[in-house]
Batch of 2 targets.
Target 1
Amino acid sequence: MKRTMKRTRVFAVLCALAMGLSLLAGCGASDKSSDSSTGSSSGGTSGDAGTGGATKEITVSFMTWESEAMNQLILQSFKKFEESHPGVTVELIPSPLTDYGTKIKSMISSKTAPDVFMVGNDWVIQYGSSGNLYDWTEKAAEDGIEELYYPGVVENWKVDGKLYGFPGLLNTYGVFYNKAALDEAGLEYPKDGWSLEQCLEYAQKLTKDEGDKHTYGLYTNQSQRFDPFFVSIYAASAGDVPFTDSITNVQSVTASDSFKKAVQMIGEAIQNGYVTDNEWNVSNASTMFMEGQCPMFTAGQWFADEFIRNAPEDFEWGFVSWPIAEGGTRASIYDCTGWASPKDVEDPDLIYDMIKFIHTEMYSEVLPQTPVAPPAATDYGQAYYDKLVEEGHQDLVDGMTYMLEAETKLPVRFLDPFASDASAFITDGWGPIINGTAADGDIDAMVENINKAITNYRESH
Amino acid sequence: MSVIKSKKKKRFIGNLLRGSFLWILSFAMLMPLLWMVTAALKSNSSIMSIPPEWIPKEFHWENFPEGLAAVSFFPRFLNTVFISIMCVIGQVISCSFVGYALARIRFPGRKIWFYLFVGSMMLPSMVGLIPVYRLWTALKALNTYWPLIVPAFLGSPFYTFLIRQFIMGIPRSFDDAAKIDGAGHVRILFQVIMPIIKPAVITIVIMQFQASWNEYLSPLIYLIDGKKWTLSLAVASYSTLYAVEWNKFMATDLVYMLPTLILFFVAQKYFMQGLGSLTTSGLK
Amino acid sequence: MNNKKTKVVQKRRFWQRDGFIGYMFILPSLIGFAIFVAYPLVVAIFYSFTEWDGLSPAKFVGLKNYIYMFTTDPSFPKAIKATFLYVLMTVPLTLVFGLLLAVMLNHNMFSVKMLRTLFYLPVVLPSVAALVLWKFVYDPSYGLINQLLAIFGIKGPKWLQSEDTALVSMAIVSIWGVGSMMIIFLSGMQSISSELYEAADVDGANSIQKFFRITIPMMSPVLFLQLITGLITAFQAFNPPQLLTNYSGVGGGPNYATYLLAYSIYDKAFNGFKYGYAMAQVMVLFVIIMIFTAIVFRFSNAYVYYESND
C-alpha cells in the first residue's frame, strides 16, 4: 500500500512537472517572441513609436526565399541601412523555399507578416486586388521611383492603376551550352537572337548515342521547358499573335499558325530524340550540365550563379538568348520577382526607404557575391554585370541585356486570379501536344477550354 | 531419437533458408538507404555519375559536420527533442485517461463517443489546418510551441483505441480488488492499470516520438523565428532555389533519423507487446 | 473498520458518480474532437459553398464549386482515377506483403531482431527524405534501378517521368514502407496463444493449414483494423505527389498522372488561391472515405472472428 501510494505521488508530481514545464516553455517562448520578433508578431514596431522626439527603437522584418547564404549577405548589407537610420534594427525571417507561399499566406492572414517580403508577380496581383497589401501608389508617384525600371516592367505590378509592390529582380531565360561539346561537333557558338530552327538543328547535331547511353542535344530544365508560354516567344517574334494577349489582365489565348508551327518542329525533334521530352524531370539537372553531360540546357540565368561558384575548373560554358523565329523581331519572357508589404504595416515611410535601399545599394552589394539575377532597376545592375564579366561571362551579360531590352514581353505563366483554372488545361494535355504524339485538334481544344475558363472568370468578377 | 534429430535438422534448414531469403530481400529493399549513406560521403558532383559510384572514391566525412552546421543542427535538435518529449507526455496522459474511461467506466454514451473518436480519423487532416491556425492566432500563440504541444494533451484516436483495447484485456478482478480497498477510478488507473499496460504506453511513446520528430507542416506555419525551428524545417531548408547540396542533405538526414531508429531498436520488445493487444479485441 | 463499510453504503455525491467521472476522464478527447474535428468540419462545409482565396472575405457561390468539379475541371476526374488506382494498388499489396513478412519473421532464428529493424527502417526515415531519395533512385538515366537493370541488359522504363508508369512508381514507394504493418501483424501473431498451435500439431496439421486455420482467423481483427487504417491513410496521402512528381512547382504530374485527391486539395488551396474549392474537394474525399469504410465494416462480420470479451 505504502509503495503504491508513493508511486502515485511520484506520478502526480511528474504530471505537475510536465504541466509546469510546458507552461514555462510557452511563457519562455512568447517572452522570446516579444523580445526579438515583435517585428513579425505585430506587423511592425516594438517599443514605443513615440511621436517625434528622440530616436525610436524599431525592428523591421523582411523575408525572402533565397538561400541561407544569400540571406546572410542581405542581412549584412542592411547594416548600412541601420547606420543611416539610427534606432532601427533589421531582422530576417527565414523560410524554406518549397512552402514559402503557404507561410506567407498564413502570416498575412494572421497579421503577422514581415514588414517587407519577396513576392512573385502573381501574388501581388492576387493579394493586392483583394486588399491585403499596402498601396504604394502615392508614395511611388511622389518619388518617381517608376523611372528606375526597365520598360514594360512596373506596369505589371499595378492592379487598376494601384501599385501594390515593387519589382526587384528580373529573370531571363536562355540556353546554356557546353563549349567543348559544340567544339567537338564543329559548331559555332550561337549568337543572341538565334532562331529555333537553328537551335533544333544544333540539337540534332549534338545528339549522341554511345552504346546504351543516349545524350540529347538539348536538355530542357523542368521549369523552363517548351510550354505554351515559351513557345509563344516564337509566335510573337514571327509577328504572329502570341499565346496570351497581354501579361496581366489576359482576355484570351490563341494558338496562331506560327505557334503551331513551332510546336510541330519541337515535337519532331523530341520524337527523334534530339530534345528531352515534356516529362523529363531530374532532381539536379544543373549538376548534370556541369559534369559535361548536357551539350545544351535551357534554364534561367540564375543557374549561372551556381555554375560560377561550383563548376569544375576546366568546364567552359556559354549562354545565349532563348531562340526566336527565323528572321523575327526580338521577343522575350517577362518574369519579375519583387517586394511587397502587408496592408497594416506600421511605418510606411521607413519601409519605403528600405525598399529604395534594396534597389540602390543592397543589390549592388549582394549580387556580385551571389550573382543570381539582374535587378529590375536599370542603373543599379552594373555591379552585377561587372561581376559576370569578371568571371569571363560577357555572353551572359549580352544575352540578358538582349532579352531585357526587348520591346515585346510575354508572361511566363498566367498571373491573373484565374490562373489555377486555366493552367489546369495546360497541365492536362500539353505533354502529348509538345511531344508530338497528340491528335490534330488537341491544341485547339486546349485553347478553347482555357478561353472558356477565362470568360467564366471575367463574367463573375 | 532420429525423428527428433531430423525434425531439428528440418527446422535448422528452414531457418537457414528463411534467414538467407530475408537478408537478401532486406538488402534489396534497403538499397536506396545504402545509396543514401554513400551519397552522404561523396562530393556533390559524383552523386550524379553514370555508372553510379558505389564506394566513394574519396570519403568526404566533412559532409557531416558541414551539413549539420549549415542548418544549425544542434539548437534545432534541442527544440525538436523538447517538443517531442512534451508531446509524448501529453499523449500518454490524455490517452490513458480517455482509454481507461472508455474501457472501464460505465457512463452514458461511451460507445457512441468511442465510435466518434475513432471515426474522426476519417476526416482528412488538411481540414483543420487553417481554422485551427486562426484559432491560435486569435489566442496570440503564434511563434510559440503551444500549437505544437497542446494537441498532444487532447488525445489521439489511435492511441486511445490502443489503450482501450489493452485495458479491456485485463480481468476486472484486478479492479475489483482495488475497489474493495476503497479506490476510486483515479487510483485504479494509476496503481493497478498503468503498470500492466506498460507495453501499450511504450508503443505510444515510440510512435508519438517518431511523429513529433518528423512533423513538418505544423512547425512550418506556427514557428516564425529561426531560433525556434525544428529539425524537419531545418532539413527542408536545404532545398534552396539555386544550388542543392545533395551530399550534405543526405548526411544531415541520416543524423536526423538516428534518434528514432535507436529508440525503435531498443524498445522493440515492448513495441510489439503493445500492438499485440489488437489481435483478439479488434473494433468492438 | 465500521466507518469504511458505512462509507461504501452512503449515497455517492454527483462528482463521485461514474457518469460524471467518465466525462471528466474523456474531457481531453472531447475538447480535441470539438476543436480538431467538429469545428473544422463545419467550417469546411461552409467554405465549400464559397469562393475564397484564403485571405479576403469569402464570397458565397452556392453549388458552383461542386458543379465545376464534376463538369469542367480537367484535374478532378484524373485525381479520382489516380486516387482509386493508388489505393487499390497499395492497400492490398501492403497487407499481403506485410503479413507474409510477419509470418517469416515470427521465428526465433538468429538475427531476427536485426532483420525486423531493417525492414522497419524505411518507416523511420522522414518521408521528405525518403521521397527525395526515391526520386534519385527512379531517375531513368542515372538512377539506381535502371542502372541495375542495365547490368542485366534490360532497358528500364521511365518510372516517374511517364504518364503510364508514374503512379505505379509512387505506389512502390508506399509499399516500401510495409515495415509498420509488418510490425503490427508480427505483434499480433506473437500474442496468439501457442496452445492453439500445439493442439493443431497434435492433430497433425502442416504449416499451411496452421496458417489458414489458426493464424489468419485469430489475426482477422488486426487485419480488419489494418485494412481500415490502411485505406484511410492511403486516401489521404499527399506528400508523394509533391515531392516525387513535381513540375514547375506543382506536383501530381505528368499530365496529372499522380494527382492524388488529397494533393489536389492542397494544390488548389495553397497554390491556386482556391480555398473554397479545395474545401469542396475535402467534402468529396471525406464522403469517399466514409463509404469505403462503411463497406468494409458491413462485410466485416463475414470474415472477422472476435474472441468473446467484455
Target 2
Amino acid sequence: MRATNDTVSSRIEIARAELTPIQFATGLLFAAAIAFVLVFLQEPLAHDAMHNFRHAAGITCH
Amino acid sequence: MIVDYLQRGILAGVVAGLAYGMYMAFVANPLSEYLHDTQHEHGHDEHGHDDHGHGHGHGEHVHEHAEHAVSETTTALVSIGSGALWAIFLGGLFALALYVLEPALPGPDGIKTYVLAGAGFISVSVTPWLVLPPAAPGAEQLYSIESRLAIYVALIALGAVVSAASIAAYRRTATRHPAIGVAAGAVPIAAMLAVVPSITPTVVTHPELSSALVSAYRALAVLSQAAIWVLLAGTFNWLQRRADPATAVDGSHETLTTKQ
C-alpha cells in the first residue's frame, strides 16, 4: 500500500486486521459500560455533585 | 496503530484534564458558588429549594435552585474530577476519530489534529450553544431536561455535518489557492452561526443576574472548552513527534506502510 492510498476505509481495514475479535468485543463492551455510567450520572446525587462542572462546561443536561 | 492513537489521545486527555481540573478548582468552582450564593441572598421566598418550579405562573419553566443533596465541598471535588474526566473522555474520542478520519483531513500532519480539534469544538460545544448557551447557576430554562437533551444531540449531529461540509469545501477549492479554500471552508460555519440563533427562541434566561456577568460566564465557558481542544491537539502532536521523530516532518504514512 502506498502512502497516497491512505484513505478512511484503509484505516478501518488496518484496524480490523490489527485487532483481534476479542479486543474489539472488549472495546465495545467498555463503550457500553461508559454509556451506562453516563445514564447513571443523571441520578440526583451524582448530578448535583457535578453542579459546578456542568455549568462551567456549558453542558446542557442540568 | 489504533492502540497507539488511543494511548496518545488518552495521555493528551490527561494533560488537558489536569489543566481543566485546575481551572475548575481555581476559577469555575469559586465563581459558580459565588453566583449561586448571591442569588440566594436576595432570593425571594417563592424560589423554594425544591424541584417543583416556582410561583411565576409559567408552569413549563424549569428553575435551577435545587442542589443541596450534597455539600459544597463534595460538589467542588466532584466537579474538579468531572472536569478532568471530561477532557480524558474527549481525548479518547478525539484519538479514535483522528485514527479513522486522518486521511480525509486537509493540511500537513501537525495541522490535521488542529483541524479535527476545531471540528470537535464546533460539533460538541459551539453548535449546541447556539440554541442552548452555557447557563450560569440560577438560570431559567424554557424546556424540560428531556427535550434539551434531544436538542443537544441533534445539534451535535448538525455541527458534525457543518464541519464536514466546511472541510469538503476547503478541499474542493484549496487546489486553486489555499486562501480561497479557507474562505470557502468558512462559509458553512458562518452560515450556521448566523442562521441557527436567529431562527430559534431564547431558551435560557438569567432573571437575577446582570447581562455583563452572564456574558463573562459564557465567555469563560467558550474559552475553557476551546482551550481543552487546543491542548488535546497540541499534546497529541507532541506525543506523536516524540514516538516517531523520523516521520514527524512528512507524515505518519511511512509508519503506516512499514507496520503493515
